[in-house]
Specification:
- There is one protein chain.
- The protein is of the alpha+beta class.
- The protein is 28% helix and 27% strand.
- The chain is built from eight helices and 14 strands.
- The strands form three sheets. A seven-stranded mixed beta sheet has the order 3-4-5-9-8-7-6, with helices on both faces. The chain has a five-stranded antiparallel beta sheet with strand order 13-12-11-10-14.
- The longest helix is centred in the last third of the chain and has 22 residues, at 230-251.
- The two termini are 44 Å apart.
- It binds biotin.
């Protein structure tokens, strides 16, 4: 967009000259941009100045913000899709390449963990899935979800200026409320990983949450009052994630991530309720090991590790 590339005011005549159009066409062009949601200031004898762009979530907008070489695969945007995870799995079955991104403005059947629904209204939040085809042992796949959580915490901190925490294994928490969830799914062929889909939902700009979840869930904007430019935020997440992902593929374990992870772990030192096959046990969370398992302590002092997928972890008095 022409005005975006200009610093400060640009005169109507300059726009005519640079775009090779008439004065009337400039006036029409500015009005069309205003209708699309651009905020443009017009001042006599100075010209036009772009004050704010609408929060578009498009391929073009994302790619403008994404450094070259961040992703090796396809980047595909949907105005609306059932679930970006389902779409990524369909594309995987058709042979889509490693490091492909599927992102949407709205999901009609967004999926959460444990068969829950992920509410995905249009124009406000961020929904995407990364299709990865790593050479990894099957048992290591669940670690990827912790790598994604680190990237999600880092980018949330960058945009809010506040410390964002991780509720093990991969919920992002701000002011004790969940602002992002991650759902990782895997496809196997002959007992080897054919693909992993890392699906991420960030609550960024939504301010309305139904009563039944408003004490547990929130958005970055609701908590801080700062609107999030979605395409730029997603591009930043991808950079944060791919850097860590490439390191993880080399190291094949989380040893070098433990310190960063534990510094964000909301459960650390707190009593947690571990729900395993319907049975509840109270433990104190101490940290994670290099496999990404949660290390917990029984009242007797005995240590145990808890594997992702196996259990659900809750705080004693609420969500964290
Ligand atoms: C959770 O329950 O915490 C996980 C939520 C994951 C939601 C994201 S939104 C993008 C991707 N597509 C889905 O259907 N789910 C994930």
């Amino acid at each position: 967009m022409f005005l975006k590339e200009q610093q400060g005011f640009v005169s109507g005549q300059d726009i005519c000259d640079q775009l090779g159009i008439s004065r009337t066409a400039v006036w029409k062009y500015i009005n069309k941009l205003k209708e699309e949601g651009y905020e443009i200031e017009s001042v006599t004898r100075k010209g036009y100045r772009l004050l704010q762009s609408p929060d578009f979530m498009t391929e073009e907008e994302l790619i403008q913000n994404l450094p070259d070489g961040t992703l090796a695969g396809d980047v595909i945007y949907y105005d609306s899709v059932d679930s970006t995870n389902e779409e990524a799995k369909r594309k995987a079955a058709q042979g889509a390449p490693d490091e492909s991104l599927y992102f949407a403005d709205n999901q009609t059947a967004g999926k959460g963990r444990r068969g829950r629904t992920w509410v995905s209204p249009k124009g406000e939040d961020i929904f995407f899935s990364l299709l990865l085809r790593p050479e990894l042992p099957v048992e290591s796949a669940s670690m990827l979800t912790l790598v994604a959580a680190l990237a999600a915490a880092a980018v949330s901190e960058k945009y809010t200026g506040e410390t964002c925490q991780i509720k093990w294994p991969n919920d992002i928490v701000l002011h004790d409320k969940k602002v992002c969830g991650i759902l990782t799914e895997m496809g196997l062929e002959m007992n080897e990983i054919s693909y992993i889909v890392v699906g991420v939902g960030f609550n960024v700009n939504r301010t309305e949450f139904s009563e039944d979840i408003s004490d547990m869930a929130s958005s970055l904007c609701k908590e801080t009052g700062k609107k999030v430019p979605r395409a730029q935020f997603l591009a930043d997440f991808l950079v944060e994630f791919m850097n860590r992902y490439r390191r993880f593929l080399k190291e094949q374990n989380l040893a070098s991530f433990v310190e960063e992870y534990e510094s964000h772990l909301v459960n650390i030192g707190r009593k947690v309720k571990i729900i395993r096959k319907g049975q509840e046990e109270i433990r104190t969370a101490l940290g994670i090991n290099e496999m990404g398992e949660l290390i917990v302590q029984k009242e007797t002092g005995e240590l145990e590790t808890v594997f992702t997928g196996e259990v659900s972890v809750r705080g004693l008095y609420g969500y964290v």
